[in-house]
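Researcher: We're teaching a course module on how sequence relates to structure. For the next exercise, students receive a sequence and then see the predicted structure as tokens, so they can try to spot secondary structure elements on their own. Here is the exercise chain.
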Amino acid sequence: MVVLTVLGFSSGLPLPLSSGTLQAYLSVSGVDLEIIGIFTLVGLPYTLKFLWAPLLDRFSIPLLSRRRGWILLTQVVLFFLILSFSFFNPKEEIGIIGIISFFLAFFSASQDIVVDAFRTDSLKASELGIGASIFVMGYRIAMLVSGAIALIMADRLGWKSTYLFLAFLMLLSIAGTLAGDEEPISIKRKDGFKEWVLVPVSELIKKEKFLLILMFVILYKLGDAYLGAMTVPFLIKGVGFTPTEVGTMNKLIGLLCTIAGAFLGGIIMVRLSLYDALFYFGCLQMVSNLAFIFLSLYGKSYLLLVLCVIFENVSGGMGTSAFMAYVMSLCTKKYSATQFAILSSLSAFGRILISPTSGFVASYFGWTPFFIISSLLAVPGIALILKIKRHFQEGEANRPLLR
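Model: And here is the predicted structure for the students to work with:
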């Protein structure tokens, strides 16, 4: 669990450096808004990582072991990429910054592939819940460090010192890789495209009630994601909070609450079945969306804001832990990198498809109906849990994870 915490931190650290923190760095450096908008494309590897995941399943490098060798390689490359930010000026060398940012996202997504596989391979069925929550906790702490804390450091110490510090943290994360352990898996050298691309996909397709499972993976976090797309605009434009207030209360407190929710979810899942955890945590996610209705009706209230942020992020963290545990339970050890990458990409598909409509819905119907609609979007995912209940293996998944 200590190793998973460190690896979670290592996975979460680079993400803001190719998104929010990068945008702040470019903005402060005087880069044009049009170019900053184009820089959102550097995050494409996170969505397309399933394309090269079979290669990380099939091949290994002569370092440590099958999974940890790849993890170590990506961590070393990420260290140099983060470090390189401190040597260039975005205003004058924007092309180089763009190349660094893209490769940072690529190797970060690659690290995610192999760390997800390592976690899936290493955890026993009884450890899925707590293992997922511990990983999410480390992941979110890292996002807090490379997001909010990095911006504060940059404001006080400058961007060069900030990137040097973040690179040093990535270097320290290698300790988690070195301390890990994994069971060796025999790989036939003659195995090719069919074995490492078609077989992992066919194994997923052959699962009982696959179509229901597929729809569940896409829909379970949909309501939560739909709310998230409009939370900041609602708080600033709809209620009248300042960006500083939103940054402190929604982003900072929200991230801490997500960490707490993930940890709490793991503790509760020690005594709940995986099915019960998905169902009850999903219901909490759905109800938490409705909490914002009170804020939209009452108006600006710091107390209501804090209560809404705590409720929504704690329940979201709990749901994420349960969902991650379920996705891990669907993967086969031999093909876990490919299968987890496919399932995690599918989970983002619904969010990418429907989230762009959130602004139109809020503008046309108003904020209160929007929160009701976002809550209703969680209903199909919860209903599918009832449909696929029989899919869960009798015994392990329908009893508490630790007995």
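Model: If you want an answer key for the exercise: Confidence is low (pLDDT under 50) at residues 393-403. The radius of gyration is 21 Å.
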